[in-house]
Amino acid sequence: xxxxxxxxxxxxxxxxxxxAQESETEKxxxxxxxxxxxxxxxxxxxxxxxxxxxxxxxxxxxxxxxxDREMEIIETGSIWYKNAEVHDTAIEISGNTAVVWNRxxxxxxxxGNDVExxxxxxxxxxxxxxxxxxxxxxxxxxRDTHEIEH
Length: 150
Hints:
- The protein has one domain (about 25-140): Nuclear Transport Factor 2, Chain: A (Roll), CATH 3.10.450.
- The chain has four helices and six strands; from the N terminus they run H-H-H-E-E-H-E-E-E-E.
- By secondary structure, the chain is of the alpha+beta class.
């Protein structure tokens, strides 16, 4: 009986460990999302140009627009995404689509001032050939106590 209990316990632990592991695709998407924050801080429009799908949509506190406008905003620094402190990330993958939720504190330079806001950012990516392309990038204003449900 003791042996059976030990086997069941070890099996349960191994199942929980496997379920807790991120898939390789999830790791790839998470890295891409984190890299994106740095590219935005660096105003690296060349890398962002490759990441953002030509039909991508962007939703911010002050409005929504398409890729060309987002690229202009980043390049000119009219919004400078100086730092995104990521507190939590959740990723769900379905086929060739990945959805990422990042709970962040964003420090940005907007209209001549540094501002800090709490957001949950939703990012939708689609696998196109060998590359992931961002289709949707939406900022939702939240309280700093907000938690992403995993």
